[in-house]
Design goal:
This protein has one domain (2-150). Helices cover 69% and strands 0% of the residues. It has helices at 2-10, 15-28, 36-58, 64-74, 82-106, 115-122, 130-140, 145-150. The longest helix is centred in the middle third of the chain and has 25 residues, at 82-106.
Length: 154
């Protein structure tokens, strides 16, 4: 939630948020211990999405905070969780993009009362994608293997 709020209001995601997500993973994993193979899968998925995020950042498709948040949230998933995470994140991102496109075209900027609203609707190149990443993570978590293991449901 902190990532979505800071991205929405300032178009930045502080490093501490991604670091807390990574630390949280290492705190939770002993309670949901899946074994070394699945633990390795978590690390591999996180590293893979870190590389993807860096690539997207290098191409100008994603901000640096979004790339770090993508990697930090992906650390929590195994391969079976990824389709859910990517689907929900893409849906939320698409809705957010449509909202911003329509708002930037038709919303009179003078009615926007806060600085962050003004910034979000005037900046035609940036999008607070941390909202979509956070939504995808929150919807995926209850279905994820790490959650099911921790809850004793797997």
């Amino acid at each position: 939630m902190a990532a979505s709020w800071t991205d929405l209001t300032s178009m930045t995601i502080p490093n501490w948020i991604s670091l807390v997500l990574i630390a949280g993973f290492f705190v939770v994993i002993p309670f949901a211990w899946p074994g070394w193979a699945e633990f390795g899968t978590h690390l591999l998925v996180g590293l893979m999405f870190f590389a993807i995020g860096v690539g997207m950042f290098a191409m100008g498709w994603m901000g640096g905070g979004d790339a770090k948040l993508l990697a930090a949230t992906s650390l929590w998933w195994v391969w079976a969780d990824l389709p859910y995470y990517l689907f929900y994140t893409a849906i939320a991102g698409g809705i957010l993009a449509l909202f911003l496109l329509i708002g930037r075209k038709y919303l009179p900027v003078r009615i926007l009362t806060t600085d962050w609203m003004h910034r979000m609707f005037k900046d035609e190149k940036r999008m607070p994608y941390g909202l979509a990443l956070a939504f995808g993570a929150l919807v995926t978590l209850p279905k994820s293997q790490i959650y099911l293991n921790a809850a004793g449901l797997a």
